[in-house]
Amino acid sequence: MRKLLKRLSSHYKLSSFLLGLLSVLALPPFAAMPLLFVTLSGLFAIIHTRSTKSASFWSGYWFGFGFFAAGFSWIGNALLIDASSFGWLYPLVPLLSGAFFGLFIGLPSLLCHYFKGLYARFIAFPALWVLFEWIRSFIFTGFPWNLIGTTLAPCPQLLQAASLGGTYLLSLIVLYAAQSPSLWLIKPDRRHFSLAALVLCLALIPAFLYGTYRLAAYPVQTAKQYLIRLVQPSIPQTLKWDRASLERNFQQYIDMSRLPAEAPLSLVIWGETASPFPLDLDANHHRQIQAAIPQNGYLLTGSLSYTVNDSGRYAPVNAMFMFDHTGSLQHKYYKSHLVPFGEYIPLRQYLPRAIRPITNVISDFYAGSGPQTFHTANLPSLGIAICYEIIFPSQVINKHNPPQLLINLTNDGWYGKSSGPYQHFETTRLRAVEEGITVIRAANSGISALISPTGKVFGRLDLHQTGISDIWLPAQLSLPSFYRNYGNIIPLGLTLSLIILSFILSFCLTKNSN
What we know:
By secondary structure, the chain is an alpha/beta fold. The chain is built from 19 helices and twelve strands. The strands form two sheets. A six-stranded mixed sheet has the order 5-4-3-2-1-12, covered by helices on one side. A six-stranded mixed sheet has the order 6-7-8-9-10-11, with helices on one face. Helix 8 crosses helix 10. The longest helix has 28 residues, at 190-217. It is globular and about 80 Å long. Residues 354-362 have low confidence and may be disordered.
């Protein structure tokens, strides 16, 4: 064991990079979470045994480089939609992702060096990792994708802990559990083997027992009151905005919405920008959609549209429109959390002239005012999250007026058959459990489904599957959730408490050594 640790440490940059690459297999769609017991234990052992600040930083940084370069590589698929213009940028996606986001593991690794002693560092490292995950959720508008707690999503019992402390609490559980073997790896004796086993049990067993109780206390029961139809035409992204295909694509949505159902439909849902036509401004296509609206029901769709911005000019919006059976517009919502480099260009005016022609093809979308709750006759109250908005913990619903139902409209067609859509879907499941709310996900090319407040999936349409899914809403649409009421109080409070405890242990060790 000591020889293995010595080899890892002697080539610590390469070892850390390879461990980071391997860790990606713990994420969807692979879901090989047990690999983290090898990779995270190996990383912490390397950090602890390196004697300099520089080595601690670079160990964490190269782990993060591998983890994020591979974990975010799917983003580059969007550049291949117009490969002749943007394909040459594809290799830059993993390189830039790894180079920047690697800092969010490199910096916790560096800070860990300042704590003295194995136990102080063992406690501090996961806490610092999660603190930087939280920082990643808002710095430079935020990108909290592939939080390490996501790896627990396939286990229904452990997933329930998200209702207490969100995905950040799940991250703490994963890190302490998976890192526990490092205690024995660093000091391979019976005492540290027992200590590693104790940490593993303390991390997993309380969460598992709580999850078992919550699943038993809140079984999902269907009430045949509201029948919802999800429409997933799986139109290839290369054809979605093709001028010659726009009318045919639009008609496909209408035709699929009109297919027979087992009972009267309460709501038909189309995905993000399902309508390329601004339905609030385009009278002709507004009339056409009336054929898709169920009698005495509603149609809810994503749509491109335009509004007057703060400068008095028209700007595009990524919108949701909801129409009743007469075709009247009942509700509208504008996406508020826009995608950098997708829906706007940060600091556009300061970019080098050489790349301005590339960025000029991206419009600056107008941002909405944030989460809203809509009340409609004969339907539960509902909130809307469009695509990217669903990835932000504690930011997806109106906390002052929480809805009973959250509808997530998305289009993952940009990313082809990659890990991105699967990771996006699991993120949606996490939001359902965190907020204790039923989530309906409508994706143009998949994955579409209804997700219960305990994370159970119904009526799933898989990636690139063409079809409709008619789903009865559960009898109980929302459940009690500490995280919905108090946000990040538990995970951040616990994280800071652990860092303080580590500092006390480190201080006591330093004082005793003097």
